[in-house]
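Why does residue order matter? Because the sequence determines the fold. Keep that principle in mind as you read this record.
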Amino acid sequence: MCSSDLAVGQCAIEADLITEPLPNYNGDQAVDFDMYAGYITVDETAGRALFYWFAESQNDPTNDPVVLWLNGGPGCSSLDGFFYEHGPFKFDRSAGGSDSDLHYNPFAWNQVANVIYLEAPAGVGFSYSNTSSDYFTNDNQTAEDNWEFLASWFEAYPEYSTNDFYITGESYAGVYVPTLAYYTHMQNQNSQNPFINLKGIMVGNGVTWEKYDGDSFIEFAYNHGLYGPNLHNELVAGNCKESSSIHCSELELEVYLGLGNINFYDIYRRCYAGPDSPEYLYNKHQDARNVGESVPCLNSRAATEILNDDSYRSIIHALPTADIGEWSICSSKLIYQKIYDAMPRDRKSVV
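Structure:
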């Protein structure tokens, strides 16, 4: 949508326009909207760059709002939201065809909004840094980098700079979203900074008070018979709802380890991945030490396969595997420091 009367520098992002059809889209509806994908550098010195995929609104892109989407983790890719939740295409085996077919999503957010799916922080998905120490990061650095991305993105797409803008996300985006919104608001107070027309935020299934969230799940698990009364009585005797002692941490770990391969988002349902891939049916725990929490039960097989195909990466302008390694739904590169354990309590001290 870069118009001819704009400066050449403002139109450089046109190189990110996706011009080839996605190979695994089954074509059940014509694609009559533009998509852009590629990198925006947020730190030139460190060589830190964030990958985005932008889906133009199918309704009225000139006037519809711009929405930023962030998946959580911390350390999980927002392409999860693109391919499995509300992107213009979805992997949906119920629609027929192969498990790896993309189908048109009639409920996509870009039916009514211009949506940016951002992989952040660096080390998540296709986002990367040339400085390995950048993979040791935290809530504040993530908010600052995401603001740098937005400032550069709106500069590159000036036609959207006056549209209403919303920050949205899920899970650990319960921290990402408000910290970025607050940082954006504060940056807007400085007339030397680019003004971002922030109108609101939205968080689903959000982490907002980690201790409370964790304790409530342990109670939920006990009340649904997922672990026994002896262990529960030890948790109660240790006052583990209030205590963060080593003993309580060991007991809570025992609860989670005892749960086994269970879908935390629906304890009565398995996660389907296909008859030949039983290893994808349940939660994957291997990244828990690095990203700070158990990875949700996701059928990420199809996305993992296509996003590690260098020919597919070329279409969406992502660097090849040889340069930045394999794409995964949740990163094993990050060592992430959580600063804000309770957003309501800490809201005045954010970044």
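The first strand starts at residue 35 and ends at 43.
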